[in-house]
């Protein structure tokens, strides 16, 4: 993930914006595990436990 992040940043962002862009992209690595249980519980309460797999699978595709 990290090498591809560097390549992505070099193509899409200017030299002055690369640090901020890299920080924003890598923040998901840290906030994803924090938010996933909260979202999972909300989905289970709203639907059922099988819906978690369908919804996360659809988002992943």
Automatic annotation (TrEMBL):
Domain Major facilitator superfamily (MFS) profile per the UniProt entry, residue ranges: 1-61
Membrane topology annotation: Multi-pass membrane protein
SUPFAM superfamilies assigned: MFS general substrate transporter
Keywords of this entry: Membrane, Transmembrane, Transmembrane helix, Transport
Localization per Swiss-Prot or TrEMBL: Cell membrane
GO cellular component, one term: plasma membrane
GO MF, one annotated term: transmembrane transporter activity
Chief place of localization: membrane
Record protein name field: Sugar (And other) transporter family protein
Biological source species: Staphylococcus aureus
């Amino acid at each position: 993930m990290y090498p591809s992040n560097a390549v992505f940043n070099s193509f899409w962002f200017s030299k002055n914006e690369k640090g901020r862009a890299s920080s924003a992209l890598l923040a998901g690595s840290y906030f994803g595990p924090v938010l996933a249980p909260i979202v999972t519980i909300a989905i289970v309460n709203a639907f059922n436990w099988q819906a978690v797999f369908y919804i996360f699978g659809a988002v992943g595709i």
